[in-house]
Amino acid sequence: MEIRDAHFPGRAPVDAYGGGGFRFADMSHKGSILCLPSGIYGWNIAAASDLSLARFQKVFDETGDIEVLLVGTGPDLCPLPADIKAAFREAGILADPMSTGAAVRTLNVLLSEDRAVAAALIAVE
């Protein structure tokens, strides 16, 4: 049996979140996700305390297509570590941390406006 990383090849609003996962494009995903211009990917992170530069590599790979990165840090807002904020600033991306619920709502609005937005969303129960 072949096990592949989760990936949806396109942009889609998030229809629902909670229960440890997300629903989008008539699909569901258990765990955290990265919503990028190239698609929606499973993201191996469970808590804001696990955030590191390495965990955002897929985002940095698409720097030219992203102006704003919404970072859903779980049930509560957690500030981004200084090194992560500095790296995004240097890449020309505004990284905006907020609770996952707020990030999902903001992502959906910005997608409907066809903005250059991405989101890193930590799953919540």
TrEMBL record:
Pfam families found in the cross-reference section: DUF498
Coiled-coil region(s): none
Highest taxon, organism lineage: Bacteria
Record-linked InterPro entries: MTH938-like_sf (IPR036748), NDUFAF3/AAMDC (IPR007523)
Stored Gene3D superfamilies: MTH938-like
Protein name as annotated: Uncharacterized protein
Organism of origin: Roseibium hamelinense
Higher taxonomy: Bacteria, Pseudomonadati, Pseudomonadota, Alphaproteobacteria, Hyphomicrobiales
